[in-house]
Amino acid sequence: MNDDFVYIDEWVPGIRWDAKYATWDNFTGKPVDGYLANRVVGTRSLCAALRQAREKAAAIGFGLLLWDGYRPQRAVDCFLRWSELPEDGRTKPRHYPNIGRAEMLKEGYVAARSGHSRGGAVDLTLYHLSTGELAPMGGDHDLMDPVSHHGAPEIAPIEAENRERLRFVMEGSGFDRYDCEWWHYTLRHELIQMTTSISPSRDRSLRCVSQWGRLERNDEVVMRRTGESGLELFLPRTDSTILHDWASDGYRSREEYLFWSRKVCGLACLQSLLHGWTGVRLSMGELLAQALEEGCYVVEPSGKVLGLIYRPFMEWVESRFGFECRIVERTPIHASAREVRPGQVLIASVSPEIRDPDIEDPLRGGHLVLVYGVDGGVVRFHNPSGYSHNSDSASLPMRVFERFHAGRGILIGGAS
Question: pTM higher than 0.85, yes or no?
């Protein structure tokens, strides 16, 4: 093992474990590739947090029982292969009674790239220290059903209380919950970190396009609050010797580039789709001219720009490029994300502050990003105005992404 990975039972005295995926007792019905022994592995930081959690649990009369920690990528690959096999019904009643195998990915229960594979996530439950019996939780490990969601109304009061006890213990020890699985917790520093994704888009043709012309230029962009509900983005240095080659992007002048580069995040998302899904190659200046003609932006006499205006934008890209569009309104990201899949993306309205995901009290909306994948509670997206290190294939936990999300956007599918 890597030096940072250890057997958790050796570092957290008194913890119990039952590594489900090393046994026949899991949703695949047999031991899973990559699990060579009935032991649970995690990082040293995970162990430190679990020691604190064990102490908190003991103070209220409970112990911790682990089901999973570090998950090898070949185990994740094994899950994906299993999900494509014909249904045999052996584990369906217990683990996924109301969905098919293929729906596990869409519903967020199985992920192509798992947070477990970084060693900073754990599946666990509580047991009574006095009797050794498991605390009733309203469903077993890996019951892939809404009854396993936090806040599920169908469970008994004592089961809801026990879930709250586990949440109290874990969140008080530096973990965050996963909304769809009461047993799944991830170290908080794992959740808040935003980096270039280790798992690129399944549709590898979708590249990130910078609204400023090139990704390196993004690092120079200044973002500044203007009152309680406003933000402005601008380039502080506009000397011609260091300015982006605006003519190569089809702008007619330096002034046009400086004015519109702040506004064309949605067109940058569209340009990514055109490059990935079609043979159309239009410069940003050419796209902007068409968008203005179609009423996707409106410039008021004061110079204020309204837009991107969704409905004329949708009509334009449908008629001009053959895409299929559907507006999303008043919808949290966990709901709209169910529609994201290869060949269908979400242009989502977020605050431009999303490039700094640990910012306090962020605004919502005012900027557009291209969400191309959601799995394991993680949103994967291209940010036309992120920093150079987190624009292309950025990833954020769904709960963190939601802090910046305005609950609206446009679902776009390739031409059928």
Answer: no
